[in-house]
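tool_call: predict_structure(chain=1)
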Amino acid sequence: MAMKFIRIEIKWAIIFSIVVLIWMVLEKLAGLHGKFIDYHLYLTNLFAIPAIIVMVIALKDKKKSVYDGKMDYKQGLISGIVLSVLIALISPLTQWITSYIISPEYFPNVIKRSVELGYFKSTAEAEANFNYQNYAVQGAIGALVMGIVTTAISMLFIRTKKEKKIEPMGHL
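tool_result:
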């Protein structure tokens, strides 16, 4: 019963995670994990755009497929929270794939550059910040928080509005 209820959230959590991995490959190909690492801090935030799009499409899919096109705010919020939890649970795996398969040079590059620029006084300080464990925790928390916030805002527009009854005006 529970698996049937969250089948759409599972599907979209997997799709979201694939989109994350594609984004990481694109960042690497664009040189943001190497040659252009100075721009990574700013440009990586553009991921919010595809992230929001995927969340909105997932919520619309839930509305259409499960609720027959009529989903109230609470139903959508619950769906979005479930989806966000699933994405957060998968995110350490996507971070591992990114850190060790897609872009193993990212952490050494960002550590070296952050010390060169003076963001950290020592390599050890930078290493304490830029590592798989930190990114896995931050990614999971970020996915959960941003997913819930995105859902809360999106559902204002996606929810089925209650029809207002128009009262006939009396005789004039």
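agent: Residues 2-157 form one domain. Proceeding to next step.
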